[in-house]
Write a structure and sequence with these properties.
It is a single chain. The protein contains six helices and five strands. The protein is elongated, with a radius of gyration of 21 Å.
Length: about 120
């Protein structure tokens, strides 16, 4: 039988039963607030269609800024700005080859995130 507790919450009203054991298990497994804030930032950045298209393109193949701009039908400066945002969150990385700079996904986790999202909406 769950521990009984009465709580007052102005947004919800009065709760009659709280299973403290269940709540404590979940509380013990939750990441700390800073980790969840960082994850929230990643989802916010990926919530922009232009950035998501860039990430998806880079999941297929490494590209330079010019290639990405041509693919998306936008300016090089707009793509550079979006890549800077993605790079700041460690979603993409770059490498230089002479004067050319090529971008790719930072690691396979980013690609997995895309695949899982697509799988979810396809269900």
């Amino acid at each position: 039988m769950p521990d009984k507790a009465t709580l007052k919450d102005p947004g919800v009203g009065e709760l009659e039963f709280v299973d403290k054991a269940r709540v404590n298990v979940v509380r013990g497994r939750m990441p700390d607030a800073s980790m969840l804030n960082a994850l929230s930032d990643i989802f916010k950045v990926l919530g922009d269609a232009s950035r998501l298209r860039i990430v998806y393109a880079l999941a297929i193949r490494e590209l330079c800024v010019c290639d990405i701009a041509h693919l998306l039908g936008t300016s090089i400066s707009a793509v550079s700005h979006q890549l800077r945002v993605l790079r700041n969150l460690k979603l993409v990385k770059h490498r230089k080859e002479g004067k050319m700079v090529y971008y790719s996904l930072d690691d396979e986790c980013v690609e997995t995130l895309l695949k899982e999202g697509l799988k979810h909406i396809g269900e």
